[in-house]
Amino acid sequence: MRIAQITDTHVTTPGTLAFGCVDTLALLAATVDHANRISPGLDAVVLTGDLTDMGRSEEYTALKPLLDRLAAPYFLLPGNHDDRDALRQAFDGHPGLAPPGPFMNLVVDHFPVRLIGLDTLLPGRHEGHLCPARLSWLEARLSEAPQRPTMVFMHHPPFATGIAHMDEMMLLRPGDLLAVLRRHPQVRHVAAGHVHRAVSTAVDGLAMSIAPSSAHAVSLDLDPDAPATFTLEPPALRVFDVSPAGQVVSHLSPVGVFDGPHLF
């Protein structure tokens, strides 16, 4: 199974630029075209939050036709820049949207690998949160299929990256999530966004990764006193190639016009 992760698209109102200089709509259009060219084709695309820049209805209205160009089915999770109600309204009836309820958690059961999406949105805050209700939901879903290889997707990472200003906005109380995951070894990978950089680690032996943004990048500065800055690095997406046994191989695929391919 082949899954692409696109994250932190930060789509703005048409005719405007994020931070006055980032054309997030054009960058997402290029990312969608890039995803459609991946060979062999993708089985699914998961978008892990910050779908829009301000959570406005008109931003989601601009986002939907771009995502509908994806050749593979796509699934949506919110981030701290999103608004659940506006997202639900714009994508009403979309099969990759969570069912009605206070949170936008989702489970995708019809692939060889089970996909679980967690809603970490904490309205009015940039940090992420998984309350007891969301953790109980996760526990129940994982208990349903203990033998099925599973990937978990979310916006806020449950680990620190060393980029101080982003670590201040990571998932709150990550130990609560890790305690649930420890009880369910069928979880093979946790994929997050939020940080606008490619990052990977392992926590208690469980592989975890962060995908870079399809828009702007957070500057890689590991000085704990570094200011919050961004750079216009090429956008990229992650591609997960998952075997029937659940082995997850992660690739980073930059978006752009590059010379090649050339035969060796």
Automatic annotation (TrEMBL):
UniProt GO molecular function: cyclic-nucleotide phosphodiesterase activity; metal ion binding
Protein's UniProt keywords contain Iron: yes
Classification via PROSITE patterns: PROKAR_LIPOPROTEIN (PS51257)
Domain Calcineurin-like phosphoesterase: 1-197
Name of the protein: 3',5'-cyclic AMP phosphodiesterase CpdA
Keyword Isomerase: no
Listed InterPro entries: Calcineurin-like_PHP, CNP_phosphodiesterase-III, GpdQ/CpdA-like, GpdQ_beta-strand, GpdQ_catalytic, Metallo-depent_PP-like
Similarity comment text for this entry: Belongs to the cyclic nucleotide phosphodiesterase class-III family.
Superkingdom to which the source organism belongs: Bacteria
Organism of this sequence: Roseospirillum parvum
Alphabetical keyword list: Hydrolase, Iron, Metal-binding
Regions annotated as coiled coil: none
